[in-house]
Structures are given as C-alpha cells and as structure tokens.
Amino acid sequence: MDLKTAAPWISRPAGGTPARVDLPAGGGCAHARAGIRRGVAKILFIPFSVGGGLLAGVVAGKVFEQIWGLIDQEEPPQAEHRDISWGKLMVAAALQGAIFRMAKEATDHSSRQGFAQLTGSWPGQKEPDAE
Questions:
Q1: What is the rounded CA–CA span in Å between residue 68 and residue 113?
Q2: Where are the domains of the chain?
Q3: Distance (Å, rounded) from C-alpha 89 to C-alpha 81?
Q4: What pTM did the predictor assign?
Q5: Residue 128 pLDDT more than 70?
Q6: How confident is the model at residue 9 (pLDDT cuts 50, 70, 90)?
Q7: What's 34-80 look like in SS3?
Q8: Exposed e or buried b for every residue in 90-110, given b needs 16+ CB within 10 A?
Q9: What is the pLDDT of residues 25-52, one digit of tens each?
Q10: Residue 10, number of CB atoms within 10 A of its CB
Q11: Contacts of 130 (CB under 8 A, 6+ apart)
C-alpha cells in the first residue's frame, strides 16, 4: 500500500516528502469519518505512543520527587545504596511504580484519544476482552 492509498489527504510531490496535509474546513482529517485501516493506524500511532511514554516518565519522575519530599527529607532509597531500610526501599519502589503507571496510562489514553480525533481510527481495542 502506498502513501496515497493509506493517507490520501497528504499530497506528495514526485520523489519528495509530503508537501502538505489538506484538512477539511471543519478540522480533522479528510478520512476522519471513514477512519483508516487498522494496520496503518497501528504504524502511524507509534510516534504518539513513544512521545506519550517519554512525557509520562518525565512527569512521573517530577511527581515522585515532590511526594517523596513530603515523606522524607533524604533522597529516595535505591537498591544500590548499602545502608538503607528495606521497608523504606519497598515503600519508595511501590510509590514510584504506582505514580509511573498512573502517568503512563493517562498519557497513553490521551494519546489514543488525540490520534482517534485526528484520524478517525482508534489505535487499539474498543473495549476490554470479556473474561
């Protein structure tokens, strides 16, 4: 499948990179109503996903530092430190993991919503699998 078939709203000069993206007057992509094919959506979503993951990591790190500062005046313990309390290490790890997971899920879902608004295609499952 070539670019013109996958994304006909993008005009490409012969042998060059895309020159422009033609958006309808109401906003969104020309294919927003019809959506794009699932395989193409997965590939096009990769940059959204990577960007969201990087953003989640930065935000989670800053939030963890702020919350840990309320818990303890010392820096958070890490496994490489010799003289640390196991309890404090486990609390720090659990808190950091919970914050990172929350930030990751929030940015991932927001990225998917933005991608769906832009392309008209949801990059993933519509709902969880039934158990």
A1: 31
A2: 37-119
A3: 10
A4: 0.64
A5: yes
A6: very low
A7: CCCCHHHHHHHHHHHHHHHHHHHHHHHHHHHHHHHHHHCCCCCCCCC
A8: ebbeebbeebbeebbeebbee
A9: 444 544 444 456 767 777 888 888 898 8
A10: 16
A11: none
